[in-house]
Amino acid sequence: xxxxxxxxxxxxxxxxxxxxxxxxxxxxxxxxxxxxxxxxxxxxxxxxxxxxxxxxxxxxxxxxxxxxxxxxxxxxxxxxxxxxxxxxxxxxxxxxxxxxxxxxxxxxxxxxxxxxxxxxxxxxxxxxxxxxxxxxxxxxxxxxxxxxxxxxx
Length: 153
What we know:
Layout: E1 3-10, E2 21-27, E3 33-43, E4 48-58, E5 64-73, H1 75-87, H2 98-111, H3 119-126, H4 131-138, E6 142-144
Antiparallel strand pairs: 1-2, 1-5, 2-3, 3-4, 5-6
């Protein structure tokens, strides 16, 4: 069975103090249900996060703008990617946020050859950018959720 590793972008991220939330998604092509892997804040004042993995999750989150396909995975690569992402420590240093965690996880995924070479550098350049800017850069790999209704809304 084939899967996509994608990045779900939530919130437009126009305010530098409130950047878009980035989350990994692993889903079958043309499906909006899949594994959602991200870090969520447990203490925003101290910028502490915890890892969360939701299986069979609606990927059209309440404020999701869209998703960007990063890589194709087979079944065993899917399990390996979940393990690599899960092993990346959630930020609890008062500095790093979800986009920083995603960047670190992308480096680990690149080392394991689960994403194309250069993927982490591409996304490093997108850190702090708006969802609209991300959409323009990833081009045909983008799936827009604008105007879609989530079961969570």
